[in-house]
């Protein structure tokens, strides 16, 4: 029977192998997670939301300053409202007029946050910020994978790490999940157009298993938050101007913010579809799952495919969720870890609610008082037929072997139907647990009493 079980499992495995990603590469394409999600992007400070505000600009090598108005009460419009600097302006757009737009914080506010809230778990690749203002003197990037309930820091950024983040390592990372302070993307130069770049997985480190728990933790996100903690002021960069009031020139301004990522399919999908509408260029949320997996992120096995445990995909398809084998007598099953271990990893599926008088983990046996018709197959809905046993001489009033149909006789009873006493025994009675008595006088007395 073990050979038959292994053979059936092998056939199902070959069938499952046909359900593969193109070129066996289950890797969704990268895109900008910001696109189409302006309603899910928030900033703690934006100039001009409550009315016009003045701000002034002075280049790093410029003496003169130019002053302008910020009025973000209405959305940006190239033709009617170029002075609006709302946070949605940082999202990449195909509209050439949007190249003139940017987001800007209020004057003199050091602690400002920008947060993107995603509708499900995505895979984060890298972040690129392009500043119109000076880059922050200090900032950090955080991530959440439980919709903002808990947060983890990705990286600190500061020109002077010892000053702004004294307890954080400022040396190069020793491992892929080290939290360090990076000084390469801070400072006063350039005064505009400077970038901050963060990669989720540092290319310095070789990744042996892209689905290892450590890697999955680093790239799985439902929320990303930027925390700017210190403005780069002109007083920090131009000591000759220290007499001037810096307030109207101190603000954060971003031309562009790109968060590259993809839908997260746990190695079981290579493309995704929209959950509830979307726009061109948007990274959709719901995976098109392969390998008999299901869920927005292919995070579980499909119904009736619990013969093997779910696990992330990899270079091969050995971890696919395999279809349960209920021999056509059930359309529901569940995974049972104890059975999977007992069979040496061959089968862990347990069928529920077997029909057609069937029972067993795979509906492979007939129920009590039924047996397998030798002329019918295991998948035949009429394959189980009633036992033909004498209820007086067989156990439990008519029990037979589920495979052969041979009746299971009481101790002192024999015959295919368990309908006669063994030699030397007498008085076949249902009430007698042994079926017949060996004492003639006792058997005669019992007969008289009855």
UniProtKB/TrEMBL annotation:
<keyword id="KW-0130">Cell adhesion</keyword>
<protein>
    <recommendedName>
        <fullName>Laminin N-terminal domain-containing protein</fullName>
    </recommendedName>
</protein>
<dbReference type="InterPro" id="IPR050440">
    <property type="entry name" value="Laminin/Netrin_ECM"/>
</dbReference>
<dbReference type="Pfam" id="PF00053">
    <property type="entry name" value="EGF_laminin"/>
</dbReference>
<keyword id="KW-0732">Signal</keyword>
<feature type="disulfide bond">
    <location>
        <begin position="354"/>
        <end position="363"/>
    </location>
</feature>
<feature type="domain" description="Laminin EGF-like">
    <location>
        <begin position="324"/>
        <end position="386"/>
    </location>
</feature>
<dbReference type="GO" id="GO:0005604">
    <property type="term" value="C:basement membrane"/>
</dbReference>
<feature type="domain" description="Laminin EGF-like">
    <location>
        <begin position="387"/>
        <end position="438"/>
    </location>
</feature>
<keyword id="KW-1015">Disulfide bond</keyword>
<keyword id="KW-0272">Extracellular matrix</keyword>
<keyword id="KW-0424">Laminin EGF-like domain</keyword>
<dbReference type="GO" id="GO:0007155">
    <property type="term" value="P:cell adhesion"/>
</dbReference>
<dbReference type="InterPro" id="IPR008211">
    <property type="entry name" value="Laminin_N"/>
</dbReference>
<feature type="domain" description="Laminin N-terminal">
    <location>
        <begin position="22"/>
        <end position="262"/>
    </location>
</feature>
<keyword id="KW-0677">Repeat</keyword>
<dbReference type="Pfam" id="PF00055">
    <property type="entry name" value="Laminin_N"/>
</dbReference>
<keyword id="KW-0964">Secreted</keyword>
<dbReference type="InterPro" id="IPR002049">
    <property type="entry name" value="LE_dom"/>
</dbReference>
<feature type="disulfide bond">
    <location>
        <begin position="409"/>
        <end position="418"/>
    </location>
</feature>
<keyword id="KW-0325">Glycoprotein</keyword>
<dbReference type="InterPro" id="IPR056863">
    <property type="entry name" value="LMN_ATRN_NET-like_EGF"/>
</dbReference>
<dbReference type="Pfam" id="PF24973">
    <property type="entry name" value="EGF_LMN_ATRN"/>
</dbReference>
<keyword id="KW-0084">Basement membrane</keyword>
<keyword id="KW-0175">Coiled coil</keyword>
């Amino acid at each position: 029977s073990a050979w038959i079980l292994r053979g059936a499992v092998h056939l199902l495995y070959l069938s499952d192998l046909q359900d593969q990603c193109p070129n066996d590469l289950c890797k969704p394409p990268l895109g900008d997670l910001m696109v189409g999600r302006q309603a899910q992007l928030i900033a703690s400070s934006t100039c001009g939301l409550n009315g016009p505000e003045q701000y002034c600009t002075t280049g790093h090598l410029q003496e003169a300053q130019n002053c302008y108005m910020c009025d973000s009460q209405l959305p940006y419009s190239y033709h009617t409202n170029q002075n609006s600097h709302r946070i949605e302006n940082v999202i990449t757009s195909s509209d050439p007029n949007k190249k003139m737009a940017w987001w800007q914080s209020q004057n003199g506010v050091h602690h400002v946050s920008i947060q993107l809230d995603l509708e499900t778990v995505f895979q984060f690749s890298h972040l690129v910020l392009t500043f119109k203002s000076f880059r922050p003197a200090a900032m950090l990037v955080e991530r959440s994978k439980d919709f903002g309930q808990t947060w983890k820091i990705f990286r600190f950024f500061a020109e002077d790490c010892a000053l702004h983040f004294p307890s954080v390592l400022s040396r190069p990372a020793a491992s892929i999940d080290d939290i360090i302070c990076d000084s390469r993307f801070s400072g006063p130069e350039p005064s505009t157009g400077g970038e901050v770049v963060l990669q989720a997985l540092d290319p310095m480190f070789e990744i042996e298993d892209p689905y290892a728990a450590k890697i999955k933790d680093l790239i799985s996100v439902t929320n990303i938050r930027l925390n700017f903690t210190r403005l780069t002021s002109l007083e920090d960069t131009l000591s000759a101007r220290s007499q001037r009031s810096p307030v109207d020139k101190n603000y954060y301004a971003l031309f562009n913010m790109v968060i590259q990522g993809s839908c997260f399919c746990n190695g079981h999908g290579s493309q995704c579809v929209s959950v509830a509408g979307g726009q061109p260029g948007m990274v959709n949320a719901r995976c098109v799952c392969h390998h008999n997996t299901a869920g927005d992120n292919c995070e579980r096995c499909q119904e009736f495919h619990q013969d093997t445990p779910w696990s992330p995909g990899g270079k091969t398809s050995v971890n696919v969720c395999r279809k349960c084998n209920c021999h056509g007598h059930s359309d529901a099953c569940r995974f049972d870890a104890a059975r999977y271990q007992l069979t040496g990893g061959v089968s862990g599926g347990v069928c529920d609610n077997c029909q057609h008088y069937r029972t067993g983990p795979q509906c492979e046996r007939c129920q009590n008082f039924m047996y397998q018709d030798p002329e019918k197959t295991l998948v035949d809905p009429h394959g189980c037929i009633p036992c033909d046993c004498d209820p007086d001489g067989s156990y439990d009033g008519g029990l037979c072997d589920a495979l052969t149909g041979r009746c299971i006789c009481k101790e002192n009873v024999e015959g295919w139907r368990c309908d006669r006493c063994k030699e030397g025994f007498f008085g076949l009675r249902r009430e007698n647990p042994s079926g017949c008595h060996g004492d003639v006088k006792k058997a005669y007395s019992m007969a008289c009493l009855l």
